[in-house]
Amino acid sequence: MLQEESDLSLIIAQIVQKLKGSNLYAQLERQAWACLQRPEIRLESLKEDIKEFFKASGWEKKLQNAVYSELNVYPLPSHPSAPPEHLKEPLVYMRKAQGSWEKRILKSLNSMCTELSIPLARKRPVGEQKELLNKWNEMGTDEPDLSLFRPVYAPKDFLEVLINLRNPNYENGDSLSFRTHLGLIQVPLKVKDIPELKECFVELGLNTGQLGIDDSTQVPPELFENEHVRIGQKVLVQQDSAAAQQYIRQGSPTALRAELWALILNISSQPEDILYYEQLKTNVIQHDLLVDSLIYKDVKLTASNDDYYFVFEDYLYQVLLCFSRDTSVLSHFAYNSASPPKSYIRGKLGLEEYAVFYPPNGVIPFHGFSMYVAPLCFLYHEPYKLYQIFREMYVRFFFRLHSISSHPSGIVSLCLLFETLLQTYLPQLFYHLREIGAQPLRISFKWMVRAFSGYLATDQLLLLWDRILGYNSLEILAVLAAAVFAFRAVNLMEVTSLAAAEAVLADLSTLKVMPLLQIFLFATVT
Amino acid sequence: MSRQKNQSYKAHGLPKGKEREQRTLIRFKTTLMNTLMDVLRHRPGWVEVKDEGEWDFYWCDVSWLRENFDHTYMDEHVRISHFRNHYELTRKNYMVKNLKRFRKQLEREAGKVEAAKCDFFPKTFEMPCEYHLFVEEFRKNPGITWIMKPVARSQGKGIFLFRRLKDIMDWRKDTKNSDDQKDEIPVENYVAQRYVENPYLIGGRKFDLRVYVLVMSYIPLRAWLYRDGFARFSNTRFTLSSIDDHYVHLTNVAVQKTSPDYHPKKGCKWMLQRFRQYLASKHGPEAVETLFSDMDNIFIKSLQSVQKVIISDKHCFELYGYDILIDQDLKPWLLEVNASPSLTASSQEDYELKTCLLEDTLHVVDMEARLTGREKRVGGFDLMWNDGPVSREEGPSDLTGMGNFVPNTHLGCVNDRKEQLRQLFRSLQVQKKAPG
């Protein structure tokens, strides 16, 4: 009892500490001062009256949402004497692996720099600044020569690193047993099995209404959809993050989605936020970074070629170029196993006073990175709003898809979860694919790294991301990947090569996500 | 609200009384070598006839029609894919004339409010005969942009934008000069149309919508609306400052294909379902409902305006491609109606759309005499107008005329045509087997 209480007070202290530095605190203080003028505030019961006022005016709700947001994002403190690296990643061998992966990426980036003799950063001449400012809304029309640039890495390079991950303290033994994991990932992390997943994703069950299933044309809207929309509107009126997060587990109506996501992510566009975005824009105009070319190349290669996202090309530049200059993103490295790459002012290598993070936000984009932003363009149309949502999605979820960690939503766990589900519940298929040299993870890895963006139809993707937000976890990506394999199992059993297996799974654009998930979790005889 | 007729027992255009002959072999002819040919060749029981052979079905081009229709005898069952004088609807100058006349008539009969429903066509003047009227309008609205379009050409050829009368003066001089040199070039008719300056933009780009409407007869008017269609995007970002940039303002795929930015892989098209979802997530479902019902209004009124003029030959049907532009207030504008919408596919998705569109067109034309004539939906086509509005509801319509009338259109909605066709043909087979 005592332990729990002291844990709780520790958590409260940490959150209070965190929020004290935030904008919300300043606003609450201002409001408190302002409300002293009101007649209902009496000196004798000052504290209670102010609390009442906050409750009635909705400020308490905002505070609640902020606290809820903190609880969601920041991992709970474990042991008071645990070093900060533990917050990033408790397992030493994972930290080491992430460290050497980062070294490789940097080496690749540096060698590209030297080869092309391009500086990592340079200040733009005034003429160029003016030109860029004029073209800000249509940067997609630019066709710079990017032929010499290559993406720093692609998902398949990252997969190779994960395949070679080993826990030095774990001895598997050479003999094969029924426990032997036959997949590519060979680290002993705990992953959920179907009964546990059923408990975790209980709202996706057969008896609960879902958007993506119970709003199909054959189902009369009175049965579920109308009521669900009504509740959604109520949630928005209440402005309660926690309620929204619970609500969205059953999917979000199209018209309410933009607001619901903003509520769950606790994004409200204050004037300060708009100003901050404008400041980032100024940074982009004034300085040119090498990573900008990488971003350009990525957008041109991926989103611009997509049948649906090509329309949003300009927005992608406006978001990603600003993103690389946003130093507030650095704070997420406290709980990310990755660390921001450091660069040194010329001639001062090794001297910490002359170290800067490069890029300023510490995130080096890889091939396909722009696809994290593209689906959001469907929902948000003001650049600053789109930017805020993307940034929050990144520091809550997407970063886990390309850093090595033991977190249950980290890509390593997702891969292991996927393979385990397949091996346990579709053993014949798994064995067959393995025999023909088509390890399933080699096909599904790229889906998970991109959170299925660009592979599913947009409306299906948004329904999937609804659940990511609702459950605050990426595990659903692994479950969906397994469900896709289960769905196409018959065809896959007939293929005899990796190329043929890829072909069977090349086009996911016709899949309906929610029925697949429901059948796999709740309607398959295990 | 117009008085609703009892819809449930009205067939859609099949001769009453005698049984239609079931044909087992249908001889078709066409000159088009694209998706249409694929669809016709794959249709069971249909064989191609070449050159001078007799045909039961001809998907002709308009030039053939112009030269041969009047001296071609057609048996009762024969079908041809155009109406003799379709140009009343599809040539921009005739359409404007017909619409203006219809509007006046509507104002006389039903009042200003009803007539205002015809205001979906940007102000247009025929050149050169209405030049003076145009100048009057031009002077009333200084500074706005106008677009000059040749009456009969397609694919964006010959179009230009202007803001000053000087620009047309120059153009008139140019055309006059060239006429002097060569007498064979006919004087082409143009229309000057008010350019919609505040188009709805997605991703900073302008787009227009292509919608397919199938008309089986004009008297009585029977029209079907296809659920699928697409939005065609301009490759470059919209700005009024670049009037000379042909590529920005014309979203016709034919023009886009020559734009320096054009990448064939992109295709720059969105299916209507995607477009409808995008709008719904941005403006909410009610606004989208209103927009789409305004578009229904465009289709109906435009067809009604030429109803009395077009020669409604029972052998004829026509698949129109409507081009619609949406402005920032979510108001749809009719740009033009095409009698020969492009059937060439620009991408795999496009190929599938056009194949299904043509298959369903042939189902509705029903050379095989399978339909009863009471269907409200065939594949992706919904019966939109059957000598009166068609309701989505089943059974006899609300006789009080006060009920909530939901029109039977599903543009941009889910198109589960395969299942629907399967069910339809199965039930038709059962009906045929049933005695009596």
TrEMBL record, chain A:
Could you tell me the superkingdom of the organism this chain comes from? Eukaryota
Listed transmembrane segments:
none
Name the Pfam families for this protein: RabGAP-TBC
Matches recorded under SMART domains = TBC
Positions of the Rab-GAP TBC domain: 251-472
PANTHER family associated with the record: TBC1 DOMAIN FAMILY MEMBER 19
State the name under which the record lists this protein.
TBC1 domain family member 19 isoform X1
Q: What is the organism field in this record?
A: Mesocricetus auratus (Golden hamster)
- The primary gene name is Tbc1d19
Automatic annotation (TrEMBL), chain B:
Q: What is the protein name given in its UniProt record? A: Tubulin--tyrosine ligase-like protein 9
Q: Which cofactor does it need?
A: Mg(2+)
Checking PANTHER family in the record gives: TUBULIN POLYGLUTAMYLASE (PTHR12241), TUBULIN POLYGLUTAMYLASE TTLL9-RELATED (PTHR12241:SF39)
Is ATP-binding included in the keywords of this UniProt record? yes
Identify the keywords attached in UniProt to this record, alphabetized. ATP-binding, Ligase, Nucleotide-binding
On whether Ligase is a keyword of this UniProt record, the answer is yes
Q: Which gene specifies this protein's sequence?
A: Ttll9
Q: Which family does it belong to?
A: Belongs to the tubulin--tyrosine ligase family.
